[in-house]
Amino acid sequence: MVVTILLSAFILAAFFVFGNACYKMGAGHARQSIEIEHIRQLELPTKTMSHETD
Questions:
Q1: Is 24:30 a contact under the CB 8 Å cutoff?
Q2: Which letter does DSSP use for residue 48 in this model?
Q3: Sign of the C-alpha dihedral, residues 30, 27, 15, 10?
Q4: Is the confidence at residue 49, as pLDDT, over 70?
Q5: How far apart are CA 11 and CA 5, in angstroms?
Q6: Which residues contact 30 (CB under 8 A, 6 or more apart)?
Q7: What pTM does this model have?
Q8: What one-character DSSP code corresponds to residue 28?
């Protein structure tokens, strides 16, 4: 009996959380403005081959 009551309470809580999230998505509350930022080219150091002879 106790397990059934706890399982029922968990199922009801899960439905409430899922339904609330779906409602917020449908109402547009979950939307965020996404700014597209392009990747900038990194400045890489250039290797210079210097063979120093003594």
A1: yes
A2: -
A3: positive
A4: no
A5: 10
A6: 21, 24
A7: 0.47
A8: T
